[in-house]
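Q: Give me the 3D complex with PRP.
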Amino acid sequence: MSPTSEKAFPVSWDQFHRDARALAWRLHGAGPFEAIVCITRGGLVPAAVVARELEIRLIETVCIASYHDYQNQGELIVLKEIDPKIRALGDGSGAGVLVVDDLVDTGKTARMVRQMLPKAHFATVYAKPQGRPVVDTFVTEVSQDTWIYFPWDMGLTFQPPIRNGASG
Ligand SMILES: O=P(O)(O)OC[C@H]1O[C@H](OP(=O)(O)OP(=O)(O)O)[C@H](O)[C@@H]1O
Ligand SMILES: Nc1nc2[nH]cnc2c(=O)[nH]1
Ligand SMILES: [Mg+2]
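A: Here is the predicted complex, encoded as structure tokens.
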């Protein structure tokens, strides 16, 4: 993502729950899935909702960080690999595994996980155009120059009245 995204897309907890549940509805017909691999940390929250809706109890993580500095993507660092028992599913192809993340932006993170699980099903709640081809299922597309603000990154703050020069 570019250093300063022009548009902001703030998401409340209610909205995120609704969108994650909508993702589960879409995934319902795409399974069955033996396990979920969630890409931490952002994937943890939608993975919990999807796991509950699809009654999947085998949950693994792959821990990847790349946005070390706000809105600036750096080098991708894999902090924890996928457990070999999960990687062995589908005869080592990842077939039957559902990979969940909160969003796909450039697609770099998802592409790295695809190399680990080539036949897994990739799902995100939100997708930007550049990353869209890497995911199999998503709910809402936002433009590439939009920054999505998640509820776990935000708090309630005072809003100046519009008449006093507040910007939309
Ligand atoms: O498609 P990309 O351009 O690769 O970006 C998408 C990734 O970036 C964010 O994770 P981040 O690295 O910020 O770590 P976090 O999930 O711990 O916040 C987001 O949760 C995705 O995993
Ligand atoms: N919170 C957040 N993290 C990101 N990582 C890559 N793109 C985004 C984004 O739009 N919002
Ligand atoms: Mg992430």
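A quick observation: The chain has a mean pLDDT of 93.
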